[in-house]
Amino acid sequence: MRSVNDVRKENLIVLRERFKTLANLNLAIGKKKTDSTLSQIINGAKDTRSGNVKNLGDRLAREMETKLSLGYGWMDADHGNEAFPEDDDLIYLRRLNVSACCGAAGIQNYEDEAYVDLMGVSRVWFKENINQIRENGYEIITAAGDSMEPTLKNGDLVVIDRFDTEITKRDGVFCVLIDNDLYLKRVQRVPGSLRFISDNRLYDSFEIRLAEVESRVIVFGRMVNSLNLKRYD
Fold first, then answer.
1. CA torsion, points 57, 58, 59, 65, in degrees to nearest 10?
2. Do 95 and 115 form a contact (C-beta atoms < 8 A)?
3. pTM of this prediction?
4. Which run of H or E residues covers position 75?
């Protein structure tokens, strides 16, 4: 799999061709006509202090998507021979190689969260099912196990809001790291504790005292929707 830096560089070249020159592209994103940032990225210039090749970072990628009216995540997607950006009405969600465990034991691959690929969804679908205003901060993980059935089945894709981590202030289904194990559980506030609930009644719930939450729990994000898959044998 190619790195996100390689993909962004190729998309930057596509945009340069679309706008004829880098000077025109600079003006389109609100930079000075003579700004050399994009040119240095395309040509693989090295940073004089670190010696590392200059890449198009997240901040600039998101800024370009906004200024050029591209879908969120457009710079990270491999477009190949697709139409030019103005014909592309998609929002791209990163799918991470984090498989949130719905079973009893959890898994331990939270730290390895590099994205696997990107999924393009129409802007209309996104606004109807995810958020009408904010496009950034949403990513996709995979549910594993059967303890959240019938809400979630093994292999279902789950859309997570990475900005919503206030687990002690609202109830909901959260992806959390507890004592180095990753879970996708329904969280309910109870006096003095948080209760972590499995929708499958065969699994017992468990509680963590509020005083221990900060030291034991890392919140990955809140589930806002799922892409349930129907399987045929």
1. 110
2. yes
3. 0.64
4. none
